[in-house]
Amino acid sequence: MAKLMRAKLAVLVAVASLVSCGAATEMSMSDEFGSQAQAPAETTAVAESANILMDQEAVEADTSRPVEPPDDSAITAGQPQLIKRAQLSLVVDSVDDGLKSASQIIRTHQGDILDLQDNQIEAVQRTAYLRIRVPQANLDPLLEELGALGTVQQQGLGAEDVSTQLVDAQARLRNLRKSEESLLKIMERSGEISHVLEVSRELSRIREQIEQIDARVQNLQTQVRYSTIDLTLAAAVASQPVGRPLGETIGATWQQATQSVGSLTVGLMQIGLWLLAYSPYLLVVAIASVIGYRTIRRRPS
Fold first, then answer.
1. Which is nearest to 115 in space by CA: 228, 234, 236?
2. Which residues are CB-neighbours of 146 under 8 A, at least 6 positions away?
3. Structure pTM?
4. Minimal CA–CA distance to 138: which of 226, 78, 73?
5. Which residue(s) pair with 103 in the sheet?
6. Beta bridge partners of 134
7. How is the chain split into domains, by residue range?
8. Cα separation of 70 and 258, whole Å?
9. Residue 239, SS3?
10. H-helix or E-strand containing 3?
11. CA dist., res. 171 & res. 80, Å (int)
């Protein structure tokens, strides 16, 4: 089909050349203005026919190409932006083994341990707390593998949609950057010093807003990309407190007894000092009590 179209195009070009030669011969025998109007009209018609054939050939060539699938970037951009947080409490046989296994699982899923607290200082039951950050795509598999380490006591998952906040912040950033470009163009022009200083202050204020909003956008995007997990591991069997040796126990008891005696002695001394300080008032009260008692005794019954 393409060869047939090229043959037709060649025939039309030959016809155009013949028409041009005939027009040149006829121009010498007829009027100058009439011949000049006829030849260009015929040449234009031939050119339009050639263009139509070329367009048809291009359409046929395009139909032979495979159709490319549509781009999914717009669909992905329209997805909700969620900040996910999960809580998981497990009862394990050994907290140490649970911590080691949890660390390996977290590394496998490209996660990080942000905080680790081991709560056992002569306690009856040992517990460990971990705060984990993991890519949002690996959140569900990580929770599933961590739940297999022991018995699940509590589990929760929360999400916050920040799509509107991101859209608003990005729109403000675009507007502020346009204002910054306009102010930079104004700064390039020559003018009074007062005007230049005023524009410079406005430019500094806009740049400060841009930095603040940009930092907020980046923070939100980071929270969307990474989810957090609060993991608590508790020992299944309560640990028994270790008994002290006899000598250490007797020494601690004697120390407590001497401290108690010292505290009692200090307390009695403090009471004596208080009584000594208030002795004049106590003497007046005692004398008044004796006089009143005697007066009551002397009255006739």
1. 228
2. 88, 90, 102, 105, 229, 231
3. 0.49
4. 226
5. none
6. 227
7. 2-63, 79-239
8. 87
9. coil
10. helix 2-29
11. 17
